[in-house]
Amino acid sequence: MKDRVAVVVGTRPEAIKLAPVVRALRDKAGIEAVVVSTGQHREMLDQVFSRFGLRPDVELNLMRPNQTLAELTGRALSSMDATLEDLSPRLLVVQGDTTTAFAAALSAFYRRVPVAHVEAGLRSGDTRNPFPEEANRRLASVLADIHFAPTALSRQNLLNEGVSPDRVLVTGNTVVDALHTLLEVPCSFEGTPVEDLPLHDGSRLLLVTSHRRESWGEELENICLALRDIVERHPDVRVVYPVHLNPNVRGTVLGLLDGMDRIHLTEPLDYLTFVNLLRRSDFILTDSGGVQEEAPTLHKPLLLLRAVTERPEAFALGLARIVGTRREDIVREAESLLSNPLAYRRMADAQNPYGDGQASDRIALAVTRWLCGERPLLHPSEELLQTGRATVAEGPFEISA
Q1: Which of 243, 261, 376, 394 makes a 20 to 30 Å CA pair with 150?
Q2: Where in the sequence numbering do the catalytic residues fall?
Q3: Per-residue pLDDT tens for 287-318?
Q4: What's the predicted TM-score (pTM) here?
């Protein structure tokens, strides 16, 4: 009889980072991996699952129009409780810092189901930034039995909080696994929201994503105004901005940027299209978490539209820079990359700190050993990941006042 492992996803980033984990778990003879979807980003989830040849085994369909975080958390908690009672898994796998991850981990704790946390140990040092993600991931860490840290710095964060070293395994980030898989898939922009854009006319392309809750309002307005300034100053620059479906985002972005010359607002992109647009771009402006890992993997300079990051490794190595949400700061840092080829090359040529594309295999092997009652032993080739000999400055990294 196989050991049942439940893998919970709710958002597109979770699906991207857990799809290779699900596939690696299903390659293990003794494991039955069951995918539970809360549907926190339903349309985006379906796009990702189809790209990886997966589909949810259990659909909870928790989203409601304009629901509060408390309402979503409450529904997730009660729905996951019933699901865990029905599935009786030996282990629950959650990923990252979403409301889905926290609520599922808490529900599993109440049911006495052990929890494995993928992408554990990220810390910004500020529970209000990003909100509510920083609190979600800290709370998930308290509830987790196994911590799969993406980097040595993330592992050290957990050790500093009192987590036992034998419960933490540095794996690399599973988003690198996903990227390696999808970059082998032939891609055409035909039939996508960007098919009619002049992406090959010699223009420099800036890819933008911004949707975080703490950016709604004045901060998002500043970002939009900065984008207008950049294209007005540089006639050879185009901006592509896939606009999130949340009405708090769309209202601001469409109100300030719709119809602007060389600023192309699109509907959300499926992940394969987004990855290939990322590969085509010159650099990225984002407030996203996952893009902070995807851009360095593809050697694309990144400007972070936030005041603090929980992913400092790329910033320490020079692949990314925190610019915040002040209009003049965004413009100044973008100007540096557009006008200074040496500054651009320094960011583009730095080494990616987020892994080698084998994170999911390490996770699946560790889960197998854990289910058999073994300590997750390391292969000699993995020792470097655990010791963290690569030079990475201490986080969190913040913009100076």
Answers
A1: 243
A2: 97, 119, 133, 211, 213, 244
A3: 988 899 999 999 999 999 998 899 999 999 89
A4: 0.85
